[in-house]
Each structure stands twice: as C-alpha cells, then as structure tokens.
Amino acid sequence: MNGEFARIELVSHPRHLDKVQEGSLIVSSDWITYHLACRRGFSARRLDALLAEWPQELGDPAQHHIRVCEWMYDEHGQDMTRFEGVSLGKLFVRSVTFFSLGYGLVYYGLSRLLATHAASELVVHDVRLRHDLLSDQAKLHLAERVASLHGVRVVSRLDSLGQDHPDYPEFFKGSGAPQEEKGVKAWLRQAYAQAIEALFRLRASRRKRVLLMLGWIATRQILDARRQEDPAPILIANMSPKAPGFLWESWKQGTVLAALPRRFLKRRHSKRLDEIRNQFSRDTKKAVLGPVEEATRSFVSEQIFGQGWLEQKAREVLSYLALFDKHCCSSAVIGDSTNDTSRIIAEIAKHRQIPVDEMLNGMFLTSQRYDSRSGDSFTPPVIDRILTRGSCDERWIGLTKAKVSCQRVGYPALACLKKPAREMNPKGNALILPIYADCDDVLASLNNIFDHLTATVDALKAFGCAVIRIKLHVGLPNLAYYKRVLETAGIDVAVTNQGGLLEHLDWADFVVGPVNSGAMLETMATGKPYYPFLPEPSLIAPELIDGVSIFKAPGELVAWLREGRVPDAKAALEFYASSTSLPDTGRAFWKAMHREAA
Q1: Which helix (H) or strand (E) holds 513?
Q2: Who's near 75: CB < 8 A, 6+ residues apart?
Q3: CA-CA distance, 153 to 141, in Å (whole number)?
C-alpha cells in the first residue's frame, strides 16, 4: 500500500464516507467508520494501527504520566499553581494525560503515514482522540504541523462531531469544568448535611479522628470492624448513606458525619488565580517546547484556565481546608491519590504534617508511575503509606519505585462477597465485561478492544453458550456506540450499563473480563468462575500476573470451556487480596490506623 495514493483523507464518522474522493486512502480514527469503509470498497487504515510500536519521541511509556504532568513547574522547579498550599495543576492529571497521550499518538501516527506514502494532499474531514479533547482549531493545527514536515498540502473540509455528540465510544468530561449542582436540590443537600453534622457534634469526642475517603463497600466493612478504642472515622455526610439505620449505627459507634463547608473566593483568592494564569503564560512563552508539549500547554490554557475550572477547584480546596480546621483530622485515608478530590485531601494533610494513607481501589498491574506515589523531578510523593491488599500491590510498589512505606491490610471490600465455589455450566449464561484501556495502560488500543469483544462473542456463540450478556462499566463507555459496534459486526446479543456487578453475577454461570479490573476479584469472591483476558498491546507487567491463568485469544477461552476447566480463584484471591492469610481485613485496617507493626 506504500506510495500509491496521492491523497489521504482523515475521517471519524460514517457520514464522512459520502464526501471522500475516489482513489483516496481513508484513515479512520473510528472503529465503525473503518469497517464500513472497507465494506464499501475504500482503501482504508485505522489511525491507531499506524503505530505498531510506541513512538520513541514520547519517551518511556511508564513515565508518560509523570512527564506530561510537570507542566506546572517553572524554569526553577517551582510549582506555579500553588494555592493555599495545594497544587491546583496536579488536580487535572487525568485530563492532561488523556489529551497529551491522544495528541502524541495522532501526531506521530500521521507523521509515519506521510513518511511512507507519496501523498501530496492531506484532506481533513475530522480526526479525534479517544475522547474528543481537541478543538477544531487544534485539529487543523495538528494536521498542518505534521504535513509541513513532509511537504504535504492540507485541505480542510472539517466536519467535526462536536464534543457533545453521541457517537463517541466513551464520554469523558475532561474538556472543561464539570457542572456544579445549583438551585433547590443543592440547598437541600447542604441543609441536610449541616443538620446531620450539628446532631453528631453533640456526641463528638476528643479521640483521634481519621478522615475516610473510600468506596462505600470497603468503608462499610471498616466501620463494622471498629472498636471503641480505635480512632473516630470522619465521613462526608452527603457522600454517605442516608438511611435511618445507618445514621443510628453511626451515632452509637461514634462516627463523625461532617458537612463539607461551602466556601467562595475572596478578592485575594481571585488575585492569586490571576497570578497563576499570568505566570503560566510568561513561562510558556519562554519555554522551548516540542509539538506535544506545546499543544498540551494550549489545552491547559484554553480548557482548564479559560473555562472556570481553576476557580471551581480553588473553591473545593477552600472547602476541604475548612473541613480540616473544623474537625481536627489526625490522619486521612484515600482511595485514589490521582483522583482530584483525594489529591486535595492528601495535599492539605501533607502540608499540615498529617499522615496520609492510600488504600488502592481497582487493579494496579502496569508499570505506569504517578507522582502522587513516586514523586517527580521536583516534588516528593503526596502520600506517606499504601495500605496494600496482597503480594501483588507490594510487587507493584517496587516495580513503580513508589517512594512510600506500605502495610498489608487485605481487601475489606471483598469481605461481604465471599461464597464457596459452585458448579459451572460452560454453555450456560455468559457475562462479558469488555476489556478496556485506562490511562495507566498507555499502550492499549480502544479499537483493538472492539475487535476482541466481537471475536469473543462470535466464539462463545459458536461454542453454544445459551445466552450472552455484555455489561459495560458504569461511567465512560457509551452504550449506544457499543450497540452500533455489535450491529456493524452482525451480532445480536444483549448489552447494558444498568445495575451493579453483583446483580449480573447472580444471573451468570461464568464471567469473561479484563485482568485489570476489580471485577475479577469480586467475581471470584462470590464463587463464580472468571476468565481474565489481557489486552494487547499492553503496559501490564507480567510479574504482576500471578495465581491466575491469562487468556489472549477467544480460542483459548473456548478450549478451557470445552474441557470444563475453571481458573484457580483461591490462588488469585490470595495473591491479590490476602484472602486466606489475612481473613480479618477490618481489624488489620484499624491496627494500621494505630500505627502498629503489621
């Protein structure tokens, strides 16, 4: 295919196929559009397939997050975005990582394409990232910048979908400030929280207090294991159950239910935010930047600094500062130090020399490093200790060179799920949880995931499974798009994003899903077989896979089902969650809160 097309046309939606010229090479950033183009006889390639290997220009993939999230440091290594002791810049790590990753892959993918074809023209109908964080202006600038390196003329026939269009595989609200709740509902929520806080303050003690910002299932097990001599847990009232039974138990046990104070920016705060913008602008003008770094800084300036997002996070910082002042937290436990709210809590605690623990939520299997745990070129980690669940977490800490201590406490969220294994019907109800590419696994491809999903369904149907159901993860995946993928592939199976995992597990005879999902452990704990797949390509580290058999192709899965083989749940649960060696995870947690040795 090299060198035989005079024109390359970039498309991202089936409607663009009606506008392309005969004899062009079609390059699609969309799975459905690519397959429809092939069916209509176009010469077509997928944008993500242009990079057979990770581009060296983007550096070590395991350092991608740290590298692209150092934009807030000036030439002297000082954080330009410090606000009341908190780095506002570090609160946007997910959005910046997604943008920089997508932009870099498109940029270098197009560069390799133009280097291997003698095309004289690059026609841009649309090109988009996995999440459409590129403005129309940025899309054209990207295409023109790459094309100029290869002497190719750019023709703009831009027909972008717009960031709110329903035809995206995933929805990611990373291109501007999220909408804040206002009106009567917001007032009623705040009034409820303040009333509950006032009531619980009547029972307040002088005992040490630990602020818990964890998922509810883990929090419930931790609360159930608490004794009177343990520190008093602080929970945010609006984020906690409101059932009378929970409130009564919390009152009896001495749990502190706190209202998150509402705070507004004063003149001095607004002045500081203006200083941040101005200093960032001056530093950007002086800095020597590559194409991806330049685009990333433009994204920060336009989308983060220019749409009220900075102000929103500054108000949140002031609210949590007031919470710490009011409730005298002696320590904090968070569930994800890369989450913006958890990061605020960790930075405030760190600034006040209050111990910060992180209890990992989900599976951490890649070698990707994060500054919150490993530090970066200028700043140490923001957490002090990781409360590990099992041997895997401890290997992962070593692999990623996280500069923190650790103490094993097991996995409290599994305690309420444990059930004995049961007999499995290999041709019964099959539940598929699609594998996915999070921003930790920068090598993974969303289009490859659709290939895998359709191939898995086809294989299970051919094997004779009675009923197949696809359950999407709550949040990012777009249900309508997944349905269109299956329709394009000629597959008729149920696909849903409704209901919790446990509800679907009750229905399923077995589960097929990603190895890098906490659903694997939850499924195994309930006694149901889980057949884990590894996405390819992937940054998932082989040394973090132990105690479980991994499948790479649907044919391997079918071979196991035909033989009636079931993965060893006991070995996996021990390696990842210490389910046998540390059965009382609740007490292990409170022992850690007393700073006792493991």
Answers
A1: strand 510-514
A2: 283, 286, 287
A3: 13
Strand pairing of 256-258 and 331-334? unpaired
Buried b (16+ CB within 10 A) or exposed e, 571-594: ebbbbbbbbeebeebbbbbbbbbe
What percent helix, strand, coil does the chain show, rounded to 5?
Answer: 45, 15, 40
Q: Where are the alpha helices (DSSP H) in 385-478?
A: 391-399, 446-463
User: What is residue 304's DSSP assignment?
Assistant: I
pLDDT (tens, 9 = 90+) of the chain, 598 residues, equals 455 788 999 999 999 999 999 899 999 989 999 999 999 999 999 988 888 789 999 999 999 999 998 999 999 999 999 999 999 999 999 889 989 998 999 999 999 999 988 899 999 999 887 766 788 898 999 999 999 999 999 999 999 987 667 788 887 665 566 667 677 787 888 888 899 999 888 876 667 899 999 999 899 999 999 998 999 999 999 899 999 999 999 998 889 999 999 999 999 999 999 999 999 999 999 999 999 999 999 999 998 998 889 999 999 999 999 999 999 899 999 999 999 999 999 999 999 999 999 999 889 999 999 999 999 999 999 999 999 999 999 999 999 999 999 999 999 988 778 888 778 899 999 999 998 777 789 998 888 889 999 999 999 999 999 899 999 988 788 899 999 999 999 999 999 999 999 999 999 999 999 999 999 999 999 999 999 998 788 999 999 999 889 999 999 999 999 999 999 999 999 999 999 999 899 999 999 999 765 5
Cβ atoms within 10 Å, residue 53: 7
0.90 surpassed by pTM? yes
* 275 close to 81: Cβ distance less than 8 angstroms: no
Long-range contacts of 445-448 (CB under 8 A, 24+ apart): 445/48, 445/535, 445/537, 446/31, 446/48, 446/130, 446/169, 446/170, 447/31, 447/34, 447/46, 447/48, 447/49, 448/48, 448/535, 448/536, 448/537
Question: Exposed, middle or buried, 124 (CB in 10 Å: 0-12/13-18/19+)?
Answer: buried
Residue with tokens 């069916």: 39
Q: With CA atoms as reference, report the closest residue to 455 among 553, 588, 312.
A: 553
H/E element, 356: strand 356-359
Instruction: Count the Cβ atoms, other than its own, within 10 Å of residue 198.
Output: 10
- CA–CA distance, 288 with 42 (Å, rounded to integer): 41
- Burial (CB < 10 A; 0-12, 13-18, 19+), residue 7, is buried
For 116, 148, 270, 272, 274, the CA distances from 267, given in Å and listed in that order, are: 56, 46, 5, 9, 11
Q: Which residue has the tokens 């057949």?
A: 531
Contact of 250 with 212, CB cutoff 8 Å: no
Given a contact cutoff of 8 angstroms between Cβ atoms, the answer to whether 109 and 47 are in contact is yes
